[in-house]
Amino acid sequence: MKKITLIALLLVTGLTVAQKMKVVSGDYKFLNGQKELNIAFDYSAVKLMKENVSNAEYVAERVADLNKKSKGNGDIWKKRWDSAPEQIWNLKFLELFSKYYGNEKDVTIQEGLTSAKYTLQVKIVWLYPGWDAGVMKQHAKVTLNYKFVETANTSKVLLEINSEEAPGDQWGNNYSNESRIGEGFAKSAKSLAKEIVKKAYK
């Protein structure tokens, strides 16, 4: 009975959080026929944790906590965290978005592609790193806001989408906050790519 109870608990703990994607305005049709798409990431107003703290507040608290447990560990972690957007999260997003949309429809997708008619602005709204304690875990969650705008006139929004709580989950154990969040970026990118392929090319 104890084994059954433990297995049930692990299954509940490891359940994938459902991602919610909602079109705020516009539609996908303008993407049909495009061969390039510029990408721009915006972390300027990101909030973290259930308390919706700023990145600066989260980092300061985490650094202090880790340094208290083992001197210097917090400072080492901060370097990994600060580099994560460029080295993990953006790359995860671009990799999966290109795989499921770019490769599928022969579209070149990259940052700084100013020749593209349209730009996808990816605003990072909220991050929850989750945790992994070996036998039990809680997935990371990533909330993003997407705006497809004209590259030459970014005030012209053709499509806006909210992607809420994309799960950063994977098989096995993952003790890195940065890596778990990266899986959330990958999940969100894959879901958006599939929506574009499904709805822009009817």
Write the layout of secondary structure elements.
Layout: H1 2-13, E1 20-26, E2 36-42, E3 47-48, E4 53-54, H2 55-69, H3 73-105, E5 108-111, E6 118-128, E7 131-132, E8 137-138, E9 140-150, E10 153-168, H4 177-199
Parallel strand pairs: 2-5, 2-6, 3-6
Antiparallel strand pairs: 1-10, 3-4, 6-9, 7-8, 9-10
Helix pairs in contact: 2-3, 3-4
Keywords: Signal
Protein name: DUF4468 domain-containing protein
Organism: Flavobacterium kingsejongi
Describe this structure in words.
It is built from 4 helices and 10 strands; from the N terminus they run αββββααββββββα. With 202 residues, the chain is of the alpha/beta class. Strands 1, 2, 3, 4, 5, 6, 9 and 10 form an 8-stranded mixed beta sheet that branches. It has a two-stranded antiparallel ribbon with strand order 7-8. Helix 2 crosses helix 3 and helix 3 runs parallel beside helix 4. The relative contact order is 0.22. The N terminus is likely disordered.
Q: Which keywords apply here?
A:
DUF4468 domain-containing protein; eight-stranded mixed beta sheet; alpha/beta; elongated; 202 residues; two-stranded antiparallel ribbon; disordered N terminus
Number of strands: 10
Distance between the terminal alpha carbons, to the nearest Å? 52 Å
Structural class: alpha/beta
Uncertain segments: 1-16
Topology as H/E string?
A: HEEEEHHEEEEEEH
Major beta-sheet overview: 8 strands, mixed
Shape: elongated
Separate helix tally: 4
How much helicity do the residues have? 40-55%
Q: Report the average pLDDT across residues.
A: 91
Protein name: DUF4468 domain-containing protein
Signal peptide: 1-18
Keywords: Signal
